[in-house]
Queue: 2 jobs
Job 1
Amino acid sequence: MSAYWDAYHETMSRDQLAEIQIKRLKALVERVYTSVPFYRQAFQEKGLTPGDIKTLDDLKHLPFTTKKDLRDTYPFGLFAVPRSEIVRMHASSGTTGKPIVVGYTKKDLDNWADLVARCLTMAGGTRDDVVQNAYGYGLFTGGLGIHYGAERLGATIVPISGGNTARQIMLMQDFGTTILACTPSYAMYLADEIHAAGIDLSNLRLKAGVFGAEPWSNNMRAQLEEKLGITAHDIYGLSEVLGPGVAMECPYKNGLHIFEDHFIPEIIDPETEQPLPYGQKGELVFTTLTKEGFPVIRYRTRDISALYPEKCACGRTHLRMERITGRTDDMLIIRGVNVFPSQIESVLLEFGETEPHYLLVVDRKAAMDDLEIQVELSARMFSDKIAGLEVLERRLRERILSVLGISAKIKLVEPKSLPRSEGKAKRVIDKREL
Amino acid sequence: MRVQQISIFLENKKGRLAKVTEVLGENDINIRALSIADTTDFGILRLIVNKPQLAYQVLKEAGFTVSTTDVIAVEVTDQPGGLSSILRHLDKVGINIEYLYAFVTQTTTAALIVFRVEQVDEAIKVLQENGVRIVPGDEVYQI
């Protein structure tokens, strides 16, 4: 098991890697200082100039970038090249309706495709494979990210996008799909539907799954592997940093290899913001070394992980990150979509609520994430007619679908019935067992 | 001629209706008529009481979502076809009844029916023109 897409970079010694990293880091710092006013100002506030970054250890002096910074500079404030150099945009969901926008140059897309090709190779993919890509196509980075990586690999891509399960299963059989790429919860749903339809696994040629965009567990992996007769790999990425292809599990499933020639990872204590040693859990932070359009300096992902430096049995030298075990903020990932409780709040404000009280209850039913939003019904929203309340539920559901991009069940509840602790409301109950 | 109805939002869970009646009882408020409309998740309790303003106030203070709505109470002769003739009058002028419920009284031989319509004034006018007796709020509260 030692197929590499880019053996040179993936297996180079850590010394060589460090050499590449410092060279690229210096160039990056110079670049953002010159072309992004936001970063220049952030550096100046810390009394830093690009010349102060001499070794990789100096990284810790650089300012952090947060999701809030990305929102505040909407839409193009952090782009490091003129708009005309940007050949594609992607966007992720934001907290108040405004998305976070990222831009890619031609070179960025080239690197991205290459990194995803590394990932697919790690999952055993070659040009002989048929990759069924059931990640959503569109502004979401999942769909197009996997798409161009599979093309780069030379595999046959089936760009089916998400949903339409019956068609997914039909094509999977008829096209002889060998690699399935989608969210783990959708994979589980597909697996259950395949079994429910009485399809024998021998009719399928599936061998591997490339699953990501939401947290999942080894327990779920075991189920997916058994139900689909595959080996299931975790792929990690986030649009602020790249999209899928930042890190990937090799066949040893011993953590996800972070492509360190393109990204420098750190683990910090989210409270003190101090870097933590290898093996300790904390917030994952990324600096992009090669991105031109939308580079980030020490971007705080809010994802909780730990880093391990030991060389992997697969021969790769890149650091391994533990699969994501949680978040430092209140963001939820539901069916692969980022959901912030404050988005629900903004919808309720639109409905005339001055102080909305609500609770998100997330569960996993039949392997699909299920979101119920309990809303305390105020006198302002109340109607003495059943039809009036049903219309209210429907309008809330439609508005939430358009803001979040996912459907939710609305449940109206009585005032003061939702839990509150010390005046601060509890907003989320996550019952999913990953 | 209008009657004030109290509407209360209730989740479908144990003890909520009991809590409403408890609050009313503690405040010496008497229920004259009641109806519940419900779905699988929630219900709307509609009440005619002897002291609607006070009922609204105390239920609100007890933390319920409550509103007041103007409805119409009419006397229906206690014989076959009594309700039908009243509904026909409203139907003829295109007034749609959102909901209605009946009242049982001790003092009259007629039945009382409570109507909820959008066009309250128009409905009152049509019914009066057709000789239907509208029972005013003050009278209903004291039944």
Job 2
Amino acid sequence: MARSISNFSRKMKARRTTILILMNVVLFFAVSANDAAGQKRFSRTYPATKNVRLQLLNRSGTIEVQGWDRQEISISAYLEAPAANVVPQSLSGTIVMDLVKENQGRNVGNVNFQIRVPRASVVDIETRIGNLSVTNINGGLVRAIITTEGDITLTNISAIAVDAQNGIGDIFFDGELRTGGQYRFTSMKGSINLRIPFESSFKLVATAPSTRNIDLGPFRGTNMRFFSDGRRVAGQAGEGASTLTVTNQRGAISFIRR
Amino acid sequence: MTCDDCQLNISLYLDNELAADAAASVDAHLSLCPECAKIYEDFAVILDSCKLDLPAEPLPPNSQALWCRINNIIESETVAAPKAEEKPRGWLSRGFSFSQVASAVVGIALISSLLTIVGVKNYFEPSGEDYTSRSPATQTTFEKVLSKVGLIETPQQARVKRFKEQEAAIDYWNKRVQARRVQWDTRMRDAFDRNLNEIDQAVTEYTMILEKDPQDDLSGEMLDSALNEKMNLLRAFSEL
């Protein structure tokens, strides 16, 4: 009798476990299906001219731009609900997307971009909120602006001019400073890390007024001087062939050897 | 024939270019209508005066001789009249009183001084943007003298003026943002508020430093930069 009761309870337990597993599977697929239905994908490819320029103003979301060896621009965007209007325009070699203007007054979800452009492109990207990342670009300009929060990551950049600005978030630059180039990095709060070759030639003005945390790294001991109680460093490395301006209102600045 | 028909044909009638019966009709009408007859007379007088062979412009009998005579008269008068010796006359003897002369001298001095000051001011005063970033250390001695006299703005005064302009712009954009922020989602509103708060903290920090030490130019520069950041943030979000 006791044996049959024990068998019965075992069977009941097994059945309960099976039901639970089945419920989990159903729930998982339901959530996945909901996600898939809530996100749209947008994809376009454009032939690139010699002097190609990408100009993108996003409202909210990440932008990843990567240089490649093809003479074409590939744009993929993942649109969270409610979906934003994305209308790229190709104007004589310039691809323009202005999601702020196209979605003015609308409450839209994140739009996350993955873009491939020729390496020699001019890249001008901006978002109100979200991370920006640019890789493998050696054109005339890399401009990456975040109005509020987000990190900016610029990797393997050899552009003539670089302008990176954000509110709250980190900025990381890994690249070369070209002769006659102008490089500007500005943050309100976060860390600015610059990874450049030791033999770089530049004139520097670096200001961190609140933290006074300016680490010159490999350029310590070169022709650099601290001013205003350590709030600013100015000087020259090498011949001073380019201009480097770094301002971090409430954060730190660091130089790293590349 | 009506008066209108007659008046239309008067000119042709005078020139004898009308057909016989038409001319007879005009003739008959003119004999009956005093108004048209008057017009006919006027036309006739004009026509007669045009036909008169007027003489050319009357010329003196011998114009060359007349001109020679006039020329001779002028030359003889110039030689005959000896030059009266002019005595050197002073300002006062020319009819100016001493007070008039003195006031003229003072006036000239004032005008030239003002012109010099304006010229110097224009020459030495850099653009507003440059001036806010300048410090007493970078001022020339001449600029320092002029700013002490009150003829040009000191860097601090220029900075204060610029801050007021920036604050006015911030007020404008802030009103637009307040009208729009109800449309933003919570994430957007929170991010905006966090960033604005961060900038405001920086502004407060630099303002306090500048109150203690108005000569701290780096804080002045950073305050300028922070206010610009605030303005840009508000402007960007007012477009959402």
